[in-house]
Amino acid sequence: MAYRNGTYVAFHAGNTTNPAQSDIRFYNTLKMWNANRSIDFRLLDSHEKTASVRDTSKKETLRRALVTRLKNSKQFLLILTKTTRLDTDWVPFEIRYAIDECELPVIAVYPDFNSILSPSELAPYWPSSLSTRITNDTARVIHIPFKKDPVLDAVNQFDISNKEYPVNGYGHYNRETQQRWGLI
Prior knowledge:
The chain has six helices and five strands; from the N terminus they run βααβαβαβαβα. It is an alpha/beta fold.
């Protein structure tokens, strides 16, 4: 059995390595928060726990590396932007494997929103692989804005060992918590 202590981060790369044209910029922000000693944010990145795989690697080699990383993860952090649902390759695979095989809770983060009180309104952002699992009640998802405080709280709270919350695909922080963070 794998030692499950990492956070698996998934995002739509948009077939480019240019951070200005890809959601990798949000992944890089997470890494920056983690590296900054003056920010109380710690993230054990599952992608850094295994050997690096280049974009030019064979598809099966990349798939095996992603599976290993997912199996070693305690949660699945999914960055959702307007283009994520357009991904037809790796993001749908990562969502399916994380939920169906690894039973990971999903921390869905949205850079386009300052607060989230009605996750069902965000359905246009969801790839079909996520939407199906939310609708058929097989995904446990907490929906949060891409802000440091909610991301930190979710990463510290929602993992494979916490089976009680989120209980379904429509989890979110209440209004009072979001007001305390200054989001509303």
